[in-house]
Amino acid sequence: MSDQSKCESCGVHNRKGNLIKLGIALDKIDYVVALAGNPNTGKSTVFNNLTGLRQHTGNWPGKTVTRAVGGLSFGDKQYKLVDLPGTYSLLSTSTEEEIARDFILFGRPDVTVIVVDATRLERNLNLVLQILEITNHAVLCLNLMDEAKRNHIEIDVRSLSKSLGIPVIPTAARQKTGMYDLISAIEEVATGKYIGAPHRVRSMSSKLNHAIEMLSQKLAEEFPGLPNVNWIALRLLEGDQRIIEAVQTRELESFGKALAIHE
Amino acid sequence: MNVKNKEDSILSLANKLRWEVGVDFHDLVIESIYRDASRIARKTVVLKGGKSTYNFDRKLDRILTSPWLGFPIMFLLLAVVFWVTVAGANYPSQLLSALLLNTVHPLLKNFAEGIGVPWWLSGGLVDGAYLSMAWVVSVMLPPMAIFFPLFTLLEDLGYLPRVAFNMDSLFRKAGAHGKQALTLSMGFGCNAAGVIAARIIDSPRERLIAIITNNFSLCNGRWPTQILIATLFIGGAVPAYWAGIVSAGAVVGVAVLGIIFSLAVSWVLSKSILRGEPSAFSLELPPYRPPRILQTLYTSLIDRTIFVLWRAVIFAAPAGVIIWLVANIHVGHSSLAGYFIQWTNPLGLLFGLNGVILLAYIIAIPANEIVIPTILMLTVVTAGLTGVGEGAGVIFQLDTIGDTKKILEAGGWTLMTGINLMLFSLLHNPCSTTIYTIYKETNSLKWTLVSTFLPLAIAFTVCFFVAQLWRLIVL
């Protein structure tokens, strides 16, 4: 402990903006950060790097089955980090996808960090675009850059960031590189220094767009202040049982707050 | 208009619009997402020339998941892991037991006598609690410290999903979910972890099958039992230079038998009380990644080995006290343990076991990993051995593994007892932690009871038939 405090008073450490890993010791929470992404992209490794916890990591998809929670302090703010189970999409209804989707949608994290595998960017982007449909506050963690390099894959980070409308941070979590940039980007989005304009998928069908618009209007009337109305409208059109229930029980308005405060 | 109607009107509007937009709109949405994703990826990803490691991965996968080589390689890897564990654990186990049992125990005993602790207190604490903890540490620590890092290396490398891939068709034929291969692999570490991992299976029916059959994955708590008994009775039955290979082979055999039981019980369940068709799923084979040796060593030692060992030690202490008590509380001319063992011995023998094993099994219900130490202690305290230990309730000074065998043989053990104990330890009900986890995961008393008693019934049935057949053939 004393070694650490020596570190903290030293100039080199301060230059690093004071990333303090809090493990599970969280006394106050300024921001809630969700970690989402495809299975086996290294979410848990990123989580462990940032919180100092040792959530079990392993090279197989589906390892994280529940939400893991940890904390970190950066600058003078405290962050609660939630490691979500890996999912390929948010559109079907498996348990993991529901956990991840419910949290991003109703838990209203201040920042959603989407961890992607740089060597499989195109496939990973499908989930990224779906997440960007339901949140404005996201950071892309372009992980496994070391593997990408080994595979001779180069990624134009600036152009990717421009296309997606969110910060993109290249990392290699297993080697602990890029973590400082990542937490800085998280801070910028959380504090509102960086205001993203996330890419939104435009549907090709005007009929569909019209239907979504009508339903969204009705939803917005009934649940004022509800974020992601368009997305919820789309899910209702698809007959998503979970969302239908949330409308019937008016969970839409209360569920979010409860999730954000507890846990 | 009341509130309820407003919500319903939203839903009915949704229903109406759903018909208007047409049935293919889900595909439309997905298509739009894929189109955008592919456009962005094209714009930002540049593939430089040069050899990609994908090719290497694909070549490796072609071998590791090939229909012909997949299974032999799997068994070979498993055998190598066990052989390294068996061969490597022997010497440190002896060192530890020499230190903890032969050096520290007399010191503690003398110290207790020196400060005038009453005999029953020093008996219960030093000869009971301390000794059983020392046994657990010396029997369990070395194999775990070798096995866990090896297993974690395979996991880190990305081998587990290949195992799942190989076994998928088998599980499908058994009416279970292919991902059950993953929960089964996790079960080799710890059944409670395997039961939790079953959450990756969506269908409740298939998840229940995975939970109920996870018990047949030989968990690390039972490895030491298997390894020790295999070394003593099976390795001991062949020439010394074969002993290592043969005993490792026997342990692999038991583990494979566990997988077979997993499949067979899954099949029976899916044809009876959990009827249904296996559901489809996609499994991504992740790239092979060079494992981080140091980190693997650290996490597997600290997180797994020490964690599991600590749990065993905590359960071992009170068990030790109980063992000492039942061996030292005399009613008439025999101890409580003596009565129980005498009383259950015929029953035990019917199943190819004996009264000591049954009593040890009951005492060790909280934690499977202390079965072997309990058996050894009980055998010594009840067999009335001379020359080993210092009388009732005390056991120590076992310098070599051969001494352990002598004790067991003096207690009436044969090769068949050894084999039956290995089978019983593989098949019997899960430990208390796992049972509790099953209850939490299923939230159902019924399925918890099924998961507990079904394996127990299977264990007794199998042991019974093995014992009867053995007697028919050998005698």
Summarize the structure.
The complex is a heterodimer of chains A (263) and B (475). Chain A is an alpha/beta fold.
Q: Can you tell me about this structure?
A:
The complex is a heterodimer of chains A (263) and B (475). With 263 residues, chain A is α/β, with parallel strands linked by helices. Chain A is built from 12 helices and 8 strands. In chain A, helix 5 links the parallel strand 5 and strand 6. The longest helix of chain A has 17 residues, at 206-222. In chain A, 49% of the residues are buried. Chain B has helices spanning 3-21, 25-44, 53-64, 70-114, 119-157, 160-173, 180-189, 191-197, 204-213, 223-234, 240-271, 293-328, 336-350, 355-363, 371-383, 401-410, 415-427, 432-442, 445-474; strands spanning 45-47, 330-331, 334-335. In chain B, 75% of the residues lie in helices and 1% in strands. The N and C termini of chain B lie far apart (87 Å). In chain B, a hairpin with a 2-residue loop joins strand 2 (330-331) and strand 3. With 475 residues, chain B is an all-alpha fold. In chain B, helix 4 (70-114) runs antiparallel to helix 5 (119-157) and helix 17 packs antiparallel against helix 19 (445-474). Classes of the chains: A alpha/beta (263), B mainly alpha (475). Chains A and B meet through helix 5, strand 7, helix 7, helix 9 and helix 10 of A and helix 1, helix 2, strand 1, helix 5 and helix 6 of B. Strand 7 of chain A pairs antiparallel with strand 1 (45-47) of chain B, so a sheet runs across the interface.
